[in-house]
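Predict structure. Chain length: 645.
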Amino acid sequence: MSRIPQTFIDDLLTRLDIVSVIDSRVKLKKTGKNYSACCPFHQEKTPSFTVSPDKQFYYCFGCGASGNALGFVIDYERLGFIDAVESLAKTAGVEVPREENKVFRKQDFRRKKLYEILEKANRHYQAQLKQHPQKNTVVNYLKNRGLSGEIARDFGIGFAPAGRNNLLTKLGSNQEEIELLIDSGLVISKPEENKKYDRFRQRVMFPIKDERGRVIGFGGRVLGDDKPKYLNSPETEVFHKSRELYGLYEARKAERKLDHLLVVEGYMDVIALAQFGIRNAVATLGTACGEEHLKLSFRYVNDIVFCFDGDAAGRSAAKRALTNALSSMEDGRQIKFLFLPEGQDPDSLVRQIGPERFQAQIKQAVPLEEFLFDVAAENIDISTMDGRARFSKISAPMIGQLPEGIFRELMFDNLAKRTGLTREVLDELQKEKLELPEPAPIAKTEKAGTAKQTSQTQPLVSSTEAKETRTEATGIAEATPSSVPQFQQKQGLTKSLRASAVNKNPAKVATVLLLDNPSLLQQLQDVPDLTADSNPDSVRLGEIINYLRKRPESNFNSILGFWGGAKGIKQQQDLAFLMANHEINEAKSIHKLYDQVRELQDSIDALTIAKNKIDQVEELKTLKAKGLQNLTNEEKQRLIVLTKI
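Prediction complete.
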């Protein structure tokens, strides 16, 4: 006779979400932090059946029915215990083990012993942090990292002293315990050398807990210069890196209702954020965030924010997270991507700018739908037909991995607007193999005497056309910069360029400058709201400025993608044409003398002056219409001022 081990059932229930199990059988409705429905076990008109995602438990206030996911399936589908377990195992994509009772009991017993030995090790490491002669070294290290005693306590931080057999001597009093220490990953065994020794030595210790708060492994941070800097427990019978998130248990313990999870890269990031009151951060354990991590996260929240460093490595990690996340994007879920300034991590940044500003950055994170199109457009000029074709071949297979639903349909509609392709064509393209574009090459420092490489947003004009355009736009003969004295160049050239560009159309000039270099916006002062202007060029500029304020890391392609999605393919093409053909591009290309920041500020100032004049004219009309006898003294003074302007 065979039986199913309790440990398997426990793990199965841990992996499943009771809300999903019941909702697939009885449609649930969100009511506060719980879900409700009319009870499937008795007749009623008013819902009294409640499902708690936090407790993974259901209860009916009408008939008293209650239990976990397994109990619900047994009662609802009238199945036997084993059949119900097999049904849930099929949902989870795992096989139900079948062994003799004695074997099962032995496995159950061994797993319990593994949890016990890991907890004993945890208490030992914590005791060493308080008692060991070198404790001050560790305490000072933690203080220098900005950690308080309270946060160290909350996360159970400990210390593994130097020495090859401290833990082995403390906990390995017999052969069974030694084997448990080896099987739990705490002790390394080399039978060919007849050696056994502690895995963690001279390290700050971070216990890793599962959802139920059981210690399943450890991470250790070296105190000196040894390598590796961080060391994790190996995969064991109770520890699987691809299924666990560091800090999830602590986050759920601190916040009964989590709005979202912030996925960061390291233990210290999680702990530092928690110390500053941001208690919803979790970290993967040396692996990319995969499907199992996302399933686990979406059991507790509908919104996830990935946090990455702003360098090339961070962006590569974000791309991996993007591709792993696509199949999990069911309707009602949201994933965002937050890129930190280069050289910063969550630990350093939250200490520098404080929790309020850090939270503000989280709110401005890039939604998955925008990041997907940004990634697909990397190194591609989608203002060209060939560019849109390549963009489509990358985007469509990614969107094709999204689950069936409204979000998927909206993404295909957005792609159709950006490219002008029909849904039938996109349906064929989505079947192609997903291949992300290669990362942009790192710009090399110019050597003397070499020409500077043009950017991907460089105007699509020939050198002859460029020369003619520059002469026409600036009124300057074909004298090279070296043939004119430097001071005369700077004074005469800049003045001529500025007068020419601003007088023609300051809104278009500012638009092109921001499309080419969005970071210029950060250097401006007193930018008015132009979205209510009567001039359509000013309105377009105002909307681009608003977009860049929310997405300061944007580039030309991401702006163009946003514009196509929001305005349609025709306006996207108009914007691309403006960028490619406006004369200000030639002004920018004349050596280093052209001051783009000042040009942009002057363009904005010109628009502000024009807007103020229009406002003043309207104000004057309003005052005159009221009649002099009906004006207050303040309005009369204002009328005098406006009449003189």
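Summary: The CA atoms of residues 307 and 408 lie 24 Å apart.
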